[in-house]
Structures are given as C-alpha cells and as structure tokens.
Amino acid sequence: MVRLVYLFTFIFSFITLSYADDAAVMGKLLASFNTAPSGWSATTDCCKWKNVNCDGSNRVTSINLASQSLTGTLPSDLSTLTQLTTLSPRRIP
C-alpha cells in the first residue's frame, strides 16, 4: 500500500512538473514576440489561449500562429514541448 502511495505521488509530481514546464515554455514563447498574439495573456493559463490546444493532462499539443502579424524569435526550448504535434507558423508570402 505504501508503495502504491509513493507511485501515485511520483506520477502526480511528474504530471505537475510537465505541465509547469509547458507553461514556462509557452510564457517564453509569448515573451519572444514583439506583440502578443490575439487571445494570449501572461495572466491566463496557456491552455486557454486562442489557437493553442492541450491534451487532458494540460500538455500543449498544437500551436497555430497563422493569420497573426508576429515578429520575434522562437525560443530554443520550444523543442521541450514533448506533446506538441502541430506548430503552424505564420504564412510567409
């Protein structure tokens, strides 16, 4: 029984850290733009941002930046969003 409690504690801690990591990376992404994308705010959960999708564990799965007039540099730790399957950048004419 004690081992089971430790296992659940470990799993919960891992999920919490993973979500916190995603939120930190998304905060860096937000800060990297000269103007914030429409519907994005540092005071709002990134899973509630417009054109950002998350899974049931609140891990970022897709980011759609199309149709946004954005300038900036993508942070290198964007690659740590391990559940990210779709990144749609702005269309370049």
From TrEMBL:
What is the protein's major site of localization? membrane
Residue intervals of the Leucine-rich repeat-containing N-terminal plant-type domain:
21-55
Q: What is this protein called?
A: Receptor-like kinase tmk4
Q: Which domain of life is it from?
A: Eukaryota
Q: Which UniProt keywords apply?
A: Glycoprotein, Leucine-rich repeat, Membrane, Receptor, Repeat, Signal, Transmembrane, Transmembrane helix
Compartments where located: Membrane
Q: What does the entry list under GO cellular component? A: membrane
An example Gene Ontology molecular-function term: kinase activity
Topology term for the membrane:
Single-pass membrane protein
Span of the signal peptide: 1-20
InterPro entries from the entry? Auxin_Ser/Thr_Kinase, LRR_dom_sf, LRR_N_plant-typ
